[in-house]
Amino acid sequence: MTHDHDHDEHHGHGSELSEMQLRVRALETVLTEKGYIDPAALDALIEAYETKTGPHIGAAIVAKAWADPQFKKALIGNATEAVLSFGLINRVGDHLIAVENTPELHNMIVCTLCSCYPWEVLGLPPVWYKSAPYRSRAVNDPRGVLADFGVKLPTDTQIRVWDSTAETRFIVLPMRPQGAEGWSEEKLAMLVTRDSMIGTGLAKSPSEVA
Fold first, then answer.
1. Residues 55-209, CATH architecture
2. Do 135 and 110 touch, CB atoms closer than 8 A?
3. Whole-Å CA distances, 7 to 123, 138, 178
4. Which of 93, 137, 185, 198 makes the best surface tag, with the fewest CB within 10 Å?
């Protein structure tokens, strides 16, 4: 099994990336003029990253799993198939696995060799996910990493670290917070954070979004 880097770049947001944006746009112009890329295809790809992927997709998936036991069963059984109804871009060869957090087991995602990431459901990875300290410490000291993120688990909770590859990605199904009984899927999704789907965070409590 090969372990390839993803070369998924984005335009970025905010003034601190303005220079990079200008460079990207200049490169796009040159490539377009030389006939190497189709501007319409490029625009479609960028739109897909900005609107059809991202943490909001993952949050909707988690919320549905919380609210619908049948979907949760399907998600744990075969996440790749279960999430197709969300209209995701499915790259050939990609395999998505959902791992469920429980009071006894907490899951974390890392990519030790590069930065493979479930971009279809979480969008582009945060900078820290790609950093060498996270990639090494998540394996060697996961409890310490969680503490750095403000997550303190009971000492008897087991922590399992999943190593992503170019072919196999993971999404964590966080525990549903208490106090959100009867909530709609749309409202439940507000409790789901990106970090909770990586395993470096927990879902929000209902009081945080009320």
1. Alpha-Beta Complex (3.90)
2. yes
3. 13, 23, 39
4. 93
Q: How far apart are CA 117 and CA 53, in angstroms?
A: 12
State the Cα–Cα distance between residues 62 and 75, nearest whole angstrom: 9
pLDDT in tens, 132-188: 999 999 999 999 999 999 999 999 999 999 999 988 999 999 999 999 999 999 999
What average pLDDT is seen over the chain? 84
Nearest to 83 by CA among 51, 121, 123, 35: 121
Q: Which phi and psi (to 5°) does residue 194 adopt?
A: -55, -45
CA distances from 109 to 90, 148, 161 (A): 20, 15, 6
Residues known to be catalytic: 111, 114-116
Token readout for 198 is: 């990586």
Helix axes 55-67, 69-77, angle to 10 degrees: 120
Cβ pair 108, 174 in contact under 8 A: no
Residues 143, 120: Cα–Cα separation, whole Å: 27
User: Does residue 66 carry a pLDDT above 90?
Assistant: yes
Distance CA 194, CA 126 (A): 9
CA–CA separation, 202 and 175 (whole Å): 8
State the CB neighbour count (10 A cutoff) for residue 85: 11
Q: How confident is the model at residue 38 (pLDDT cuts 50, 70, 90)?
A: confident
